[in-house]
Amino acid sequence: EEDYKGKDVNGKLIIVKGGTSEASDARAVYNAHKEKQELAIKNGAIGLLEMTLLEEDWWTRVSHFMEEGVKIPDTKDEQMPKPDFIHLWVNSSANKLATFNNAKLAYAIETDGIKEETLETQNVIGVLEGTDPKLKEEFIMYSAHYDHVGIGKPDAVGDSIYNGARDNAIGTTAVLSMAENIGKFPTKRSAIFIFFTGEEKGLLGSQYYVEHPIFPLKQIVYGFNTDGGGYNNTKLATV
Predict the structure, then answer these.
(1) pLDDT value at residue 205
(2) CATH architecture of 124-225
(3) What count of other Cβ atoms lies within 10 Å of the Cβ of residue 156?
């Protein structure tokens, strides 16, 4: 907010550094981008361009999380509103970014317009009833997202397929194993197993379930979600 004091940005495209004054890593860029957008809109800007300094590997991982065009319509035929604010990211080098400090630069931004595409997908849900007459009205939730990035930038050997073994085949396998085990050894409380879709596009599947639960959310007393287990350290499990 302080950066806007004394500046007239109404009707302008603002260029800013990604992240915060304390950090510019991938997590900082992602965590700050919504607030930056809200402040720009509040002050009358028509668009925001963030310059980031991420290594290519990290840029590939986080960039798809920041897409603004993915929405969940309430009905199949609902028309989604057209965006009136543009938010762009440019991943650059430290040397190029430094030129913004002491120079006035002119840039032209061209676009081919808005491409709209409707895709149908679904969450996958299974339920096992508990054995206790009273406690079976409560649920333990076991969940994982089953989508991944799909196809992206090729690696050093030209492979552009993002297989998603860690993110999140490990998680879906864990939930399937839990379902198999609890099916053999039922628990007092009921168990609900949810495989969420659209996580990589902004937690869409979990958002939809929260808005359209098959049981009242207050009946879920514990949730076990697994995602990206271990990464490069096989001694760790991310829960």
Answers:
(1) 93
(2) 3-Layer(aba) Sandwich (3.40)
(3) 5
Concatenating the DSSP letter of every residue in 37-91 gives HHHHHHTT-SEEEEEE---HHHHHHHHGGG-S-----SSTTPPPPPP-SEEEEEE
For residue 41 the two structure tokens come to 């809109």
Q: Which CA distances in Å does 186 have to 1, 126, 191, 220, 235?
A: 54, 14, 9, 17, 29
* Cβ atoms 196, 143 nearer than 8 A: yes
Dihedral pair phi/psi, residue 171, rounded to 5°: -65, -45
CA nearest 7: which of 56, 34, 35, 40? 40
Rg (CA), the chain: 22
Instruction: Provide the 8-state DSSP code for 234.
Output: T
Cβ atoms < 10 Å from Cβ of 201: 19
167: helix, strand or coil: helix
Q: Are strands 13-17 and 47-52 parallel, antiparallel or unpaired?
A: parallel
- The residue extents of the domains of the chain are 7-98, 124-225
- Which pLDDT score is estimated for 217? 96
Tokens 């993002």 appear where?
162
| Torsion angle, alpha carbons of 200, 71, 222, 235, to 10 | 10
102-126: pLDDT as tens digits: 556 566 666 666 677 778 899 999 9
φ/ψ of 87, rounded to 5, equals: -125, 115
pLDDT in tens, 28-72: 887 888 889 889 999 999 888 888 878 776 776 666 666 655 566
